[in-house]
Specification:
- Strand 2 (46-53), helix 2 and strand 3 (77-81) form a beta-alpha-beta unit.
- The chain has helices spanning 21-39, 63-66, 121-124, and strands spanning 6-15, 46-53, 77-81, 92-101, 111-112.
- The chain has three helices and five strands, in the order βαβαβββα.
- 21% of the residues lie in helices and 28% in strands.
- A five-stranded mixed β-sheet has the order 3-2-4-1-5.
- It has one domain (6-124): 60s Ribosomal Protein L30, Chain: A, CATH 3.30.1330.
- By secondary structure, the chain is α/β, with parallel strands linked by helices.
- The protein starts with 5 loop residues before the first strand and ends with a helix.
- Prephenate binds at residues 11, 94, 112.
- It comes from Peribacillus butanolivorans.
């Protein structure tokens, strides 16, 4: 009998210095490349991807960066605005990937880059 395949959430976040299309796309590409690499994600196993951004991010949909990755054309992706909580991390882009995998929750590698490492320092040093 094979391993049980279940859907897992993979989290990640990054920040940008300036809200420009070039900077947002570059930051999201870097974040997604690392999440895909460390979790060995096959896009055919991905159910959906949700991006959220703080209200300072208005130049481009972060999801646009994902379309540059081969094999991700048909993966459902959406963007939304992050809840504007007082004193929250500004200029932040977050991602939640829902992937079918045989990995346990503990084996999932969440990735936090740039200024977003402060969000989950307990997970950042796991890799």
């Amino acid at each position: 009998m094979g391993e049980l395949c279940v859907i897992r959430g993979i989290r990640g976040a990054t920040t940008v210095e300036k809200d420009t299309e070039m900077e947002v796309i570059a930051a999201v590409e870097q974040l997604m490349a690392e999440i895909i690499r460390v979790n060995e994600i096959d896009p055919d196993m991905v159910a959906s991807v949700f991006f959220s951004a703080t209200d300072e991010i208005r130049s481009v949909f972060p999801a646009k960066a994902l379309r540059k990755f081969e094999g991700w054309t048909y993966v459902p992706v959406t963007c939304m605005q992050e809840i504007p909580v007082s004193n929250s991390l500004p200029s932040c882009i977050r991602v939640m990937i829902h992937v079918n995998t045989t990995k346990s929750q503990k084996e999932i590698q969440h990735v936090y880059q740039a200024g977003a490492v402060v969000l989950r320092p307990d997970l950042t040093n796991k890799i």
